[in-house]
Structures are given as structure tokens and as C-alpha cells.
Amino acid sequence: MAKRVLVSGGAGYIGSHVTVELINAGYEVVVADNLSNCDMTCFEGVKKITGRDDIPFYQVDCCDPDAVAGLFAENEIDAVIHFAAFKAVGESVAEPIMYYRNNLVSFLNILEESRKQGGCNVLFSSSATVYGEAEVLPVTEQTPRLPATSPYGNTKQMCEDILRDSVAAYKGVKGIALRYFNPIGAHPSALIGELPRGVPNNLVPFITQTAIGKRECLSIFGNDYPTEDGTCLRDYIDVVDLAKAHVAAVARMLDGKMKEDYEIFNVGTGRPVSVSELVNAFEKVNELKLNYKYVDRRPGDVMAIWADTTRANEELGWKAERSVEDTLASAWAWEKHLAGK
Ligand code: UDP
Hints:
The protein has about 350 residues and is an alpha/beta fold. Helices cover about 40% and strands about 15% of the residues. The chain has helices spanning about 15-25, 40-50, 65-75, 90-95, 95-115, 150-170, 205-210, 240-255, 275-285, 310-315, 325-340, and strands at about 5-10, 30, 55-60, 80, 120-125, 175-180, 180-185, 220, 235, 235-240, 260-265, 275, 290-295. The strands form four sheets. A seven-stranded parallel β-sheet has the order 3-2-1-4-5-6-11, sandwiched between helices. The protein has a two-stranded parallel sheet with strand order 7-10. Strands 8-13 form a two-stranded parallel sheet. Helix 6 links the parallel strand 5 (about 120-125) and strand 6. Helix 9 (about 275-285) crosses helix 11 (about 325-340). The chain is globular, with a radius of gyration of 19 Å. It starts with a strand and ends with a helix. Bound molecules: uridine-5'-diphosphate. Uridine-5'-diphosphate (UDP) binds near residues 201, 234, 275, 298 and 301. Uridine-5'-diphosphate (UDP) binds near residues 206 and 234.
């Protein structure tokens, strides 16, 4: 019998790509999403890509304990991947209570039900934001976490700790935290991708929206950093590669391959790319000119971060494969798909 994975937040950007890859790998998937930060576009795309019209979808809020209990009562769940969380750094500073309540309560409800089942495999979507401005690069999983600089970042650290402590306390509960670097791009079909609400905060959606004419000009935040070209360095990970890391992590849990009951993996490429390099690569691969200007640094930005991916490569048997050019071409294809072009 195929194992069944509950994907909370499965209608969103990363959740929809993960759902596709889980189904491709032979898992059954149950999607739960309250559609607070997306609509059904990506879930419809998932159905088209996989040719599966029968993926169970629950429009529920994981902050509602009864709703989460219902998910577990109605489905035999072998593993949970928990994405359902708010993710805008600036908004979290303005609305901390909303962020703490949403991101913590939903995860606590998922863990409570997992525990009640007599155990479950729980994968938490964490972030490289937990490393802050690291002193030594690239960062490994042993690199110390630094105090969070936003409520959003704090919820990632707190949920990691809640998972660690729950695994230690409750027999049968196992956990993996995946620390994502900068997920970008879209599925090669251009049927699913990122759907930012309002003005995008992240670089690549801002680039594609500028290229299509929705935004006038990209502002590059700072060109006076002590890096080679003066702009910040990040580790941009293709969203399909990222999704495949989840499949590898779920398989590790379900096949009894974990070395510890709680494990952490960096999910990145191991390759630092500057903002200017990314913009140039986007122009080149898509044969267009982007309107951009250099402006002041964005407060709170770290200068540079990229992953040491040795542990994920060796333990998960996973490696990022798609080139940054192919990823940027996919991001542009998705933007054009949205514009009906
Ligand atoms: N960035 C930029 N202009 C934008 C958005 C982002 O220059 O409109 C830069 C930002 O300063 C950072 C990089 O792009 O150096 C990645 O930013 P993003 O917000 O996508 O991710 P994060 O800051 O979380 O790494």
C-alpha cells in the first residue's frame, strides 16, 4: 500500500511542487490549505501535471484543532509535511501576535495529532534565516543559530525547537527540519509557480513582474557591500530540486533510515550568486533587458549566506541539479503563463 503524506499548506508555492514530486514518487497525498495566501490555481495545476483528479483537498485552517483532528480521523497519515505558515518578514514585525499565533498554533496542532496517533513522521519547513549573518561561510547544520531579527524568523527557530522537544518526549514521533535557502523558479510545465499577493518582497518575482511590465523598475538593494560586485550573495535553490529534497527526506523517515529521531538538513545548491549576477543571468537566458536601478541597502538584509550541502548530499542522497539559467527561464515562463502569453 502506498504511504500517505499530509501536506499542510499544500496549495501554496512550495507545497504544490512538493505534492507533484510526492505523487511522481508513488506516494498518496492529502492536501490541507486555508487558502489565506493563495487560491486554487496551483492545486489545479498539480492535478493537471499529475493527471490525478482525485487528490483529497481540505480547505481548513490548521490553527483549528478540530479541523486537524478531522484530517487525521479521515485519513491514515504516515507522514506530515508542514508548510502552513505566514512568511513575510516585514509583516511579521508589524503583526507579531498574528505571526506567533498562526505559525506556532498550527504546528502545535499538527504535533498534537501526530502524538495522539501513537507517532508520526513530521517534516518542518524551516529556513536559512535561522543562521542570520553567519560568521563562517558556507553554513553547515552545526553553524550556531543567531537570535532571530524578526517574529517570522523567531517562529522558524521556535518550531524547530518544538519539533526537537516533541521528538524527545513522545515515542514514535520523528522529525526532520529542512532549512531552505532561497527557493526560486517554477515547474517546467509552467502550470504551477509562485503567486505573490501584492508587491513581491522576494527578488525573483519582482524581476519577472518587472520584465512583464507589472512593475516599473527593479530596485537592487545596495551595491556597496564588501562582495565582489557590491551586491548581496544568496544560495538560490530551484523549487523542483527543493521539492525533491522533501521526497528524499520523507523516504528516509518512512524507510527507517534516520540516524537520529530529529534531524536537520540544509537545502541549497552550495553556490553563492550575487543579485547582479542573478539579474544578468535572467536577462541573458530570457533574451530581454530588465529595467533596474541601484538603491540603498534594505534594512535587515544579511550580506551573504550560502549552504554547505554535504549532509543533504550524503545522507539524503539528494543534490540540486537544475542550473540557475534553467530555473530563471522557468520563472519567466510561469510569469508569461499567468499573463496568458
Ligand atoms: N533584493 C533586491 N531587490 C528586491 C528584492 C530583493 O535587491 O526587490 C535582494 C535582497 O536585498 C537580497 C536578495 O535580493 O540580497 C534576496 O532577497 P529575497 O527577499 O528574495 O530573499 P532573502 O532576503 O530572504 O534572502
